[in-house]
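To: structure desk
From: M.T.
Subject: fold request, one chain
Message: Could you run this one when you get a chance? Sequence is below, nothing fancy, just the single chain.
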Amino acid sequence: MNHTEQPEPSLPKVGLEHLTLRQEPLSVFVAAAAAGDAASVCVSVRHPETHDRRVLRETVSRLDDLGIPIAMGDGFLLGPRTGLDVLRRGLDILRDMRAPMANVCAYEPDADVPRDLGATADVLGEFCRIARTAGVDVLLEFTPLSHVPSLGAAMGLVEQLGLPNLRILVDTLHLVRAGEGPADLRGIDRRLIGYCQLSDGALKSEGLAAYLDEANNDRSIPGDGEFPLDEILSLIPHDVTISAEVPLRRLERTGVPPEERARRILEASRRFLAGVRPRSMPAERPNRPGGRSPAA
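Reply: Done. Structure tokens follow.
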């Protein structure tokens, strides 16, 4: 489908995450997003081409021509020893992309390393304050592959910090791999959910190594797996961006080109989301003492 054509009005909008095609040049990613009629994109600040200002300008210009906004910048990795200069450089790239949100993850795939929420909180709080001066909202992504291993841990950290530009990113794969699901979503303040990455898969994983490979390389298209996606998505506030994060190495290896992979992923995601009962209330932030509305 040419991106100038309008999508079917009955189908909801779905974005495309950079991880879906993370090894492709930005020009290929943009073309694939257009081919799949993506409503928005997420671009990783860790992709080598985002550090080339000419390529980044061309990418943003092409997306502008297509009418596809960059909803979020991914790739901000936090740790107890993370240098703030590294994070500031990522925010500089985000500014050039005109992306309103930065996704952070306290990545730690080694199961033998103790999870350290306290140290993560210190770095995250400082990053949020820097991001706020740049007019950027921050999304905290939880995953058992990080120092913030679950939705419950993320919620506790966000409430502890109480910062007006900090919300939670819900990745359906990580939610299920954390042993959580719809019941856990019902138990939190869903106004603190700021973004949703959508994929499917088997209910059970074969261990940390298999989960890491699945997350980075080979997920299932929504509707093709066993996740309780209909219940999960019904609890995501209706004004929150839903964006497909579905790397498909198995299709890549059989020669299916990026544009066709994106088309299959996005068409299936829209069809699935259209069948979900109405989603919950808008994600208007609760008032906090001394706070303000998050950056637009």
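Reply (cont.): The first strand starts at residue 15 and ends at 17. Let me know if you need anything else for the meeting.
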